[in-house]
Sequence to fold (261 residues):
Amino acid sequence: VLAASAGQSLQTRRPLRTFLFGVACAGFAVILLSYTRGIILAVLIGLVVWGSLGSRRLIIGLAVACLLIAALLRGEQRKFLMTAFDSATYQVDQGELTSMKARMIAYRFGLKRIAQYPLTGMGYGDKIVSTDYVKYQEGPQGDPRALASIRAGFAMVHLHDVWIEIGVESGLLAVAAFLAFMLARWGLLWKKWRGASGPDRRPWSVWIGFEAALQISGLVFYMLKQNSGMLTWELMAFVFVAAADPPAEDFQPIETARPSA
Fold:
């Protein structure tokens, strides 16, 4: 993403582009080998968006890569990844506690707190939320499986969803402000993509795909401040757009009247 965002300055620096592409491939390999299903899905969606906007060859390469990955994974590994498409994975009140069910229990808690504190939220800071989450699970409405997980040392340090966490901490007004921030950013990026053509569309295609991956990731992780620092990249999108604007041509200095002798 950074290589493409740098624009034409990297067109002739093939060794640097190759190095950065290798770093990106290594990062994706780490994600794949960790079997983090939400992030794998986010990366795949981001690549599809990137390919559909800028590169048909990427779509073909992605299809081939998915087939190779499916062939290389062992039976248990493939079965674990496929649980993302199993309806039993999302039946919260049944079976053992899994990572997805733990998230959904946290979502349920978060939505209740938003209903209680719709305007101002509980207070800014994930520690406030995580402390209240423990008290909630210790109460009559708590889930015994979630409480056992907490006592075993698996603390829920945040609610694993950017939108729910913002709503719980700061209320629905903050959610609306964050939504406006996101729509403004996407509008700028889309305008830049529409206004470009040919190779000039490539960096915008990459960044829009990256934004799509970030938004999907934000539905299963609290990435605004923690994890990968989602807010940092979103602010950088505005810098990227501003830096790509060409300087005004035929600039004429402002003439001021000279006092008469």
